[in-house]
Structure formats: structure tokens, C-alpha cells
Amino acid sequence: AYVALGLVAAYYAATRLIAGSKIGYSLVAFRENDDAARALGIRTLPLRIGVFALSAAMISLCGTFHAQYYLY
Question: Which of 5, 30, 60, 69 could lock 37 by a disulfide, CB 3.0 to 4.6 Å apart?
């Protein structure tokens, strides 16, 4: 159970770090208006791919922990 708590704390810290960084602001701009974000020079395709990959990595760690916890 402590490993899960540590995983949640790490994800929370990563989310806070990303939200306050340049990437976080780029994500907000991309979410609000894709065309305007591209006009500002934000490369939206690599940003979209990177966020998708990060999300998949975080979910895979949760799935791995879940499988190990239940000895599947």
C-alpha cells in the first residue's frame, strides 16, 4: 500500500511540475485554440505525441503495480 501512495505522490509532483512549466502553458494554449497555439510557434504534433506517451507510461506503471499486487 505504501508503494501505491508513493506512486500517487510521484504522479502529483510530476503533474505540478508540468503544469507550472513552459510545457504546461503550451498545453493550455493548445487546449484552448490549436490554430492560435501554432501561430505562436508551439509545435503541437510533438507536444501531443509526448503527452500521449507520458500518459501511457504512467498508466503502464499503475497496471504493473496492480498486477504485482494481486500476484497475477
Answer: 30
Rounded Cα distance between 18 and 53, Å, is: 14
Q: Whole-prediction pTM value?
A: 0.81
Do residues 65 and 7 lie in contact, with contact meaning Cβ atoms separated by under 8 Å? Answer: yes
- pLDDT tens track for 31-56: 999 999 999 999 999 999 999 999 99
